[in-house]
Specification:
Chain A is mainly alpha-helical. Chain A contains nine helices and no strands. Chain B binds a DNA duplex (21 and 21 nucleotides) through helix 3.
Chain lengths: 213, 213, 213, 213
DNA sequence: AATGAATGAGTTTTCATTCAT
DNA sequence: AATGAATGAAAACTCATTCAT
């Protein structure tokens, strides 16, 4: 064994997935070569095709894994619904928790849609639609009654999701701009900050429910 | 004149920029070939290097142009500040107006950051920082007083920007999910919906200065 | 095995080196294309980059190999020095023998210095300096005593080397001019002719240790 | 006039020739681009083809000019022959004088033989043959009588020429190796050193004729 | 006489993938 | 399971030259 990097204890297949996650997130799928990938993973070039059939297959495996986890997290909330506000907060906490586990995966799953993979595009669309069909019931009925304004899910839904996702996509940029670091303490309150903002806006009334438990 | 496609009235240079905008947005920078680009623009392959030096130079020109326009729009508001709420609404309207002009550019400018263009990354970061240094004063002081909760610009700022940007990045997906179309009528009210959401949240009080309803 | 030309017995790497030696010598490094080279070697185009990294890497490998051999030959003489005249003759014989093995290599190693390979230029300069530092002691001390005129190594050294090298560089031209052929018989006496000329000039006294006549 | 380099007083045609001489000598004909050339000369790109028809035409003009001058110098000596030794010395002085005027030209005329210019190759060969037919009579008859050894023009001729030419081709290298500079003083004695070496060798008898006059 | 935009064939290099071992 | 040599297509880019002005 004379490999030069990476976590050599783990399986080759896992090492490839880890290397791909890192490189695809940093450089993009199209801009990352399989040779570079094999080097980073410390495996032979041919192993990528051996395990995943093709570079495309590797990306597909990555994205499927991400949505698998996403589904688990979301459906768990959908299966035991509570009051509206609590749903929002649980959703924010769960998604933030998931995204923190592997921010690179977020970028890949959200960003990459190779033009020559229509089946992957369809797969993603189907997954998202399926997720939403479970999520919206958590909010839609209740918010219609509570809101003093007409509620447009096509506007509010993406806005809520984006306020979490965007944070992870742009985290390096945001950190540089505000010359700060997002540490564990920040992420304890972050989901509730997001939920508060979504529920009451920047100038809205104080929430009765405490943040960060 | 024996060109074979594209909008032949405009200049070659402009046709290349237009083709690049469309293709980069749809397929990504790395996945788009210069041959494909030249075909789409109806120009000779060499014209890309002739006008822009390299494929990278073309991307840079594209992004610089976008931020140029972005700056103009934002600084125009910053130069004549008004009350907090009005600033938010003007900002939302201006940015939505700009993004509608060329949604493809939004995707490119926000998404593409080729690993081997550190100068471009720095350029973008500098532009954003400069913009923000003009924008935040419009909101920061006033919102601190108005808000009943502690205000965190690092959370609320990106959330506000993302609620607009994300809409344009994900528009095709959102349209498919809700089986609808974003027409002119929608965009008349959209900026104020975004502003309302940011100001008062989904369940917040009705705005007095409602627009479009 | 379905290769179409060249000497198929040898390894691809060697075939590339052989083809490059021939083509670079005949046409020059810059004027020889990698496509042409791959054809001549009977290998796939990509093999050149596979084995040598780049066209430049191929040239470098060629030149390094030449100087490697040159060093061996010269240092072998330097390691067992004899009387001055004998040193000169042994040097001439050794160098002529080396150059005859691969005249094309001589041309390449002496002529090619691509502007964009400063490291190669430095490599060559270092090699030559190293060689000379071993060679000059063979002659310098003794010739100073023997010569009736002041001895200038900067003039005589290059003149001696050039009288051998030039022959191989200009051989095709010389052959055409004198309408003759340089055969084995010629090369048996050639080194001593060169040595005689260097030692005694065209009108100098006959050498006692004449060879080949 | 907003040109950035070169001697702007001279004609465009001359500036192109000067730039080509410098660049071809440094980088080689094949490795020098016409755009680079036009920049160096401070003329428009198209002027090269306008004046010389093609890049090849430019090289041809350069080489023809060199051999024109070479011929003049050599034939001037051939027209007024003297005793053998004097011929040798006059030849050396004349050629060194010529080469010093434009060392770059020497390199180009001696080195460049583009494969796709057979007419130029023939032109050069014809010129050289013509020159030699005038030069050899200066030496051949007389040296045969004087020499104590059999004289081989095919060996001695090139050796004599090379001892001068090589000096100019390798001058930068030689200077670096010996950490010295070839100044005017050096070139006053250089032709006679070369002639001495050719006539009597390194250990031959002292010449009666003084050097450097 | 002079320009510079435009051309198309050419360049070197890199790519994902395959295959014999 | 694993290797690494080999492939052929495609990549980005450069070239000398031409042409309308």
């Amino acid at each position: 064994m004379n490999r030069e990097n990476g976590d050599m204890g783990t399986e080759p297949r896992e090492r490839i997935l880890a290397a791909a996650t890192s490189l695809f997130a940093r450089q993009g799928y199209a801009a990352t070569g399989v040779r570079e990938l094999a080097d980073e993973a410390g495996v032979n070039l041919s192993m990528i095709n051996y395990y995943f059939g093709s570079k495309q297959g590797l990306l597909k495996a990555l994205i499927e894994r991400f949505f698998q986890r996403y589904s688990e997290v979301v459906l768990q909330i959908a299966d035991s619904p509570g009051p509206f506000e609590e749903n929002i907060r649980r959703f924010a906490r769960a998604v933030v928790g998931l995204f923190r586990e592997d921010p690179d995966m977020v970028r890949i799953a959200m960003t990459e849609l190779p033009m020559d993979m229509p089946d992957l595009a369809e797969f993603k669309a189907a997954k998202v639609r399926h997720l939403l069909s479970h999520v919206y019931p958590l909010f839609l009925d209740q918010v219609q009654k509570m809101s003093e304004r007409p509620f447009e899910i096509q506007v509010a839904g993406p806005a809520f999701v984006s306020s979490i996702t965007w944070h992870f996509l742009m985290r390096p940029v945001i950190q540089r701009i505000f010359e700060m670091d997002f540490d564990d303490a920040f992420y304890e309150t972050f989901p509730d900050r997001i939920a508060d903002l979504f529920l009451y806006g920047v100038v809205g009334r104080a929430p009765e429910t405490g943040k960060g438990d």
